[in-house]
Design goal:
This protein is α/β, with parallel strands linked by helices. It has a single domain, classed as Rossmann fold (3-Layer(aba) Sandwich), CATH 3.40.50. The strands form 2 sheets. A 6-stranded mixed sheet has the order 6-7-8-3-9-10, sandwiched between helices. A 4-stranded antiparallel sheet has the order 2-1-4-5, covered by helices on one side.
């Protein structure tokens, strides 16, 4: 399955926030959308998944496996979201329900798309918790989000996003709120899960060094427009736009493994 975004424009209360961007994600590809805050990268993800805020109007085309997603009924996009396209947001503390156990939330994600018995859902929730490498999964599923660390909550969010077996995962700055050590663990986890399941990936970030760990191609945004599209290896070694050059300067102060980036470019 592939995603094709063509001439996507998003206006919010009459203000142009995303201005005619075009890119594609082929089956199994790993694409990063990168830019500074306010560049339009998260709005692009929200448009793809039908989660734009009130007052936002999207035009152009977003086609998933040939099917147009823009402006289709909420019920139809909800069926695609989760079942075919999974989403991991930046801050799981706000994405997770504070009054439900994490196991119940994982199970609910499964139950939307698969009608299973309660014992079956509980077993699946434990299995999904184990798959994202949560410690003592049979007991951690009984806890509430506030009883977990930030890294554990993000793993729960990943488990929820992947529970229904989507073909495309959109990860919107999933490691920004984590310290460097936990960030590296979550990136490695995402890398392994995407590879194991053969999913496509859209990874959204402002950090080129982080992007180099999980993506092979980068789409650079500034002020709602694409200013550069290139292999991540080229963005690391010979960026063309002023924006990409600035992102490279900022990236050198964070996690940096050039050998990994070179390998990703060969995917």
């Amino acid at each position: 399955m592939s995603l094709e975004v063509k001439d996507l424009t998003i206006d919010i209360d009459g203000v142009r926030a995303v201005d005619g961007i075009t890119f594609s994600v082929e089956d199994g590809a790993r694409v990063g959308i990168i830019g500074e805050s306010g560049s339009g990268k998260s709005l692009t993800a929200l448009a793809i998944t039908g989660l734009l805020p009130e007052g936002a109007v999207a035009t152009g085309s977003v086609r998933w496996n040939g099917r147009e997603l823009l402006n289709i009924p909420d019920r139809e996009i909800a069926e695609i979201r989760g079942d075919e396209i999974g989403v991991v947001f930046q801050e799981p503390q706000t994405a997770l329900n504070p009054i439900r156990t994490v196991g119940r939330q994982i199970a609910e994600s499964i139950n939307i798309h698969e009608r299973l018995t309660k014992p079956e859902l509980n077993r699946r929730a434990i299995a999904e918790a184990a798959r994202v490498r949560l410690p003592s999964p049979d007991s951690i599923v009984k806890r509430f989000p506030h009883q977990l660390s930030g890294g554990q909550r993000q793993r729960v969010a990943i488990a929820i996003a992947l529970a229904a077996g989507p073909r495309l995962l959109i990860a919107d700055e999933p490691t920004t709120a984590l310290d460097v050590t936990i960030q590296a663990e979550v990136l490695a986890l995402l890398d392994d899960l995407v590879s194991h399941d053969g999913m496509s990936l859209i990874f959204i970030t402002h950090d080129l060094a982080v992007l180099s760990q999980v993506a092979s191609r980068g789409v650079v945004l500034a002020d709602g427009k694409i200013v550069e599209q290139a292999a991540v290896a080229d963005l690391l070694t010979k960026p063309q736009s002023a924006v990409a050059k600035g992102l490279l300067r900022d990236a050198t102060a964070t996690v940096w493994r050039p050998a990994r980036a070179s390998g990703a470019a060969d995917d």
